[in-house]
Amino acid sequence: MPGTRTAGLLALGGIALAALLAVIGHVEVNDDLSPWSLTVSDFAVSDRGGVIDTAMVVLALATAVLLPPLRRPAAARPTGRPTAGPGRGPFGWAEALLTTWVLGLLLAAVVPTNEPGLPMDTAAYVHRYASVVAFLALPVGGWLLAARLPAPAGRWVRGFAVASVVLAVAMVWSAYPGDRVLIGLVERMLILTEVAALTVLALTVARPITRDHAVVVPDKGDEAPANDHHNCMIDAKARPVTPARAA
């Protein structure tokens, strides 16, 4: 459907724009900030222009654009059987988790964390837990949604979902018992993996739908009566007519 493909293209454009803004936000901040040991949030709070926050908003909106077409049956895999959870009702589990990702990303963009090295305040805690919920909601929602996608796209989304969960666990370890070792690197790998899953979803929605036009070939058994009737007509024309005798 044209509207569905347009939504996919808009989402792809939003993802590309968000990636570009994130790169710009890393280039324009203080050179003393290390992307290996500091999170994206640390860069965002040091970015006076708000480019990284804008990138988060754009990425959330790009995901929101995908939600309506992903609810439609055209995005589902034609398995012939009802899908569990996300395939039932206007809001399934997968769609609800993707919506949670959108809301968590928006909240984290609006409520910044504190400056690096300062004690955490209320806003910083809100930012942290909004980010944690968003980072966990997307891979779980993607895993559930993969059952409704074509086979290649579904496998890619589930692969990225597994990788995201592994990286999320590594980030939690780094944040607490790991003394923040390479927490910035792990978080950026996590973000890249989740953005890759969103890209696969957008490509699936943007892909044009091809319909097969089948040609119905009549069965030979159906042609037999018509042929027999035609042959009978020919025999009738070819049979000589005997004149009737007078009484």
TrEMBL record:
It holds the Pfam family DUF998. Signal peptide: none annotated. The chain crosses the membrane at residues 49-70, 91-109, 129-149, 156-176, 188-206. The keyword Membrane applies. InterPro entries: DUF998. Keywords: Membrane, Transmembrane, Transmembrane helix. This is DUF998 domain-containing protein. It comes from Micromonospora costi. The lineage of its organism: Bacteria, Bacillati, Actinomycetota, Actinomycetes, Micromonosporales.
